[in-house]
């Protein structure tokens, strides 16, 4: 499988903003038709402060403590 086949289509993007200290991209999953993944890149203390939950190693959605 090539990189192109593994990549999804970008459906939305927020470029890096130095005030927000993050960038965001939404990508249609290349193999799961109704799935969009959101990727956030930025300073960990900023990204985590804006998150309310995460997925654990079993795939369950759990709140941050």
Describe the structure.
This protein is α+β, with helices and mostly antiparallel strands and 65 residues long. The protein has one domain. It is 15% helix and 43% strand. The protein contains two helices and five strands, in the order αβββαββ. The strands form two sheets. A three-stranded antiparallel β-sheet has the order 1-2-3. A two-stranded antiparallel sheet has the order 4-5. Strand 1 and strand 2 (22-28) form a beta hairpin. The longest helix is centred in the last third of the chain and has 6 residues, at 44-49. The N and C termini lie far apart (39 Å). 0% of the residues are buried.
Notable characteristics:
3-stranded antiparallel beta sheet, alpha+beta, 15% helix
Give the quaternary arrangement of the chains.
Answer: single chain
Number-wise, the strands total 5
Strand content is: 35-45%
Sheet of most strands = 3 strands, antiparallel
- Helicity level, as a percent range? 10-25%
Helix-strand sequence:
HEEEHEE
In DSSP terms, counting alpha (H) and pi (I) runs of 4 or more, how many helices?
A: 2
**Structural class designation:** alpha+beta
- The Cα radius of gyration reads 14 Å
The parts where pLDDT drops under 50 for at least 5 residues are none
Alpha-carbon distance between the two ends: 39 Å
- Give the overall pLDDT as a whole number: 87
How many domains? The number is 1
Shape: flat
Strands side by side in the biggest sheet? 1-2-3
